[in-house]
């Protein structure tokens, strides 16, 4: 985690400051925290951030949780595109059609349902799918998850995503000549 903090450019110093508090939560269990960090890194699509978080997450997550986090990121990559389309499309006829998308992992993720749902919500927040955010938040609340727990997960996702974007922009702009 310290590696990423040190790589975040000065143009994103607020992100660097926020990065320092990512592994502290009064509401998330260790598994929820590190699964949230891992799914956020996967969804943020930055190789450097993903490698750093994945390496450290391996020391905090068992194999089942590590695999479940990967599965949550994978299934939500598909669902977020589909359900965001349904939500945004003016033609509501699409919503009446069967999705025909297999989602068996949601029924049997290999970890507590609350943890998996939290990770699905986290990925949905990064991907901007309102329908999925609403659906997973509802399941979490019905399971007794607090708004503080959900808030911590989304806060973590926002910082991981911002760090990934800052590193990517810094890499892309490195070769742009000064005016």
Notable characteristics:
179 residues; AhpD-like; 71% helix; 0% strand
Question: What order do the helices and strands come in, and which of them pair?
Answer:
Elements: H1 2-7, H2 13-19, H3 30-44, H4 47-60, H5 63-88, H6 104-107, H7 113-127, H8 130-142, H9 147-173
Helix pairs in contact: 2-9, 3-4, 3-5, 3-7, 3-9, 5-7, 7-8, 7-9
Q: Explain this structure to me?
A:
There is one protein chain. The chain is an all-alpha fold and about 180 residues long. It has a single domain (about 1-175), classed as AhpD-like (Up-down Bundle), CATH 1.20.1290.10. It contains 9 helices and no strands. It has helices at about 1-5, 15-20, 30-45, 45-60, 65-90, 105, 115-125, 130-140, 145-175. Helix 2 crosses helix 9. The longest helix has 27 residues, at about 145-175. It is globular, with a radius of gyration of 17 Å. The termini are far apart. About 40% of the residues are buried.
Which regions are unreliable across 5 or more consecutive residues at pLDDT < 50? none
Spatial separation of the terminal alpha carbons = 34 Å
Strand content: under 5%
Shape: globular
CATH classification class: Mainly Alpha
Helix-strand category: mainly alpha
Put simply, the count of helices is: 9
Give the SSE order as H and E letters: HHHHHHHHH
Helix content range: over 70%
CATH superfamily: AhpD-like
Q: Under the CATH scheme, which architecture would be assigned?
A: Up-down Bundle
Rg on CA atoms, Å = 17 Å
The overall number of domains is 1
The major β-sheet equals:
none
CATH topology: AhpD-like
């Amino acid at each position: 985690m310290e590696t990423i903090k040190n790589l975040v450019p000065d143009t994103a110093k607020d992100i660097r400051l926020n990065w320092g508090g990512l592994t502290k939560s009064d509401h998330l269990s260790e598994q929820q925290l590190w699964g949230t960090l891992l799914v956020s890194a996967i969804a943020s699509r930055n190789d450097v951030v993903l490698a750093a978080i994945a390496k450290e997450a391996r020391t905090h997550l068992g194999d089942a949780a590590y695999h479940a986090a990967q599965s949550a990121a994978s299934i939500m990559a598909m669902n977020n595109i589909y359900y965001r389309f349904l939500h945004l499309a003016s033609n509501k006829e699409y919503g009446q059609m069967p999705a025909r998308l297999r989602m068996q992992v949601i029924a049997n993720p290999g970890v507590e349902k609350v943890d998996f749902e939290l990770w699905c919500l986290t990925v949905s927040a990064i991907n901007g799918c309102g329908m999925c955010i609403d659906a997973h938040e509802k399941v979490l609340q019905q399971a007794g998850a607090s708004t503080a727990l959900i808030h911590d997960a989304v806060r973590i996702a926002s910082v991981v995503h911002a760090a990934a974007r800052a590193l990517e922009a810094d890499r892309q702009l490195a070769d742009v000549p000064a005016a």
